[in-house]
Amino acid sequence: MKNIYGSKAVSGFIRMCGDGFAQGWHERNGGNLTYRMSPEDIKLCCDFFDAGGEWVNMGVSADNLKNEYFLTTGSGKYFRNIKVEPFENIGIVEINERGDSWRIVWGLENGAKPTSEFPSHFMNHSVRKSATGVNRVIYHAHTPNVIALTYVLPLNAKNFTRALWQSATECPVVFPDGVGVVPWMVPGGAEIAKATSEIMKSLPAAIWAHHGTFCSGADFDEAFGLMHTIEKAAEIYVLALSTGRPFLQTITDDNLRAIAFDFGVTLNEAFLG
Ligand code: 13P
Ligand code: ZN
Fold this sequence. Notes:
nine-stranded mixed sheet, binds zinc ion, 11 helices, L-fuculose-1-phosphate Aldolase, alpha+beta, 2 domains, binds 1,3-dihydroxyacetonephosphate
């Protein structure tokens, strides 16, 4: 491999950042992406690593992420610039053997740092790795229609999940477990990281009130597809509400159960009726 961009991990990461920007989810430096590298990814990329950086404590820790490597977007970096100058806007960090600190081994040049949401990503990686065994991607985006709904719907998992399931027939198949909701909190710290990871123990996505969405997935397609599906369902819900009709017809709970039955998925009954 001539350079690190030849690896599927790095090229897929850069492509996903561009796709998110094209969707309008990443104004300025909004949103962030992390990817837990596989042993094959590390083997391919390690010739380009330089492990001279300082260890930085994260304020959170995870036993099941000791010695892992993560691709991460940089804090304050604009998604629209990632394709053009990846080495300044994204990077790879190594986690120490206590699972509580990172150091840069590639990229994030000229003093850049991992996303300020790295503690949230890290805790979410930890719980999704335990819950699924295969999760590698955590993605945070400023999805406008989801954010708009956090000004309208009661801020709880049942109301959001049901509204999204009812907004597009594919939704119960794509996220049968549902989505969780984190009340408004100051972003970027250990508190919001812990609240989000509590939700992610059982659900693949969490909505941050008046802020955005966190999604997880085994690969870039799954995490991006989940974000896209949730945001599009929210857009349909907002469009329907914006007609101003006093009564909206919708997919019934029994319709949702029928979809689940035919597609062989189990819906989280706690979010119905
Ligand atoms: P970063 O630029 O540090 O990734 O922060 C962006 C963001 O969306 C914070 O929630
Ligand atoms: Zn954000």
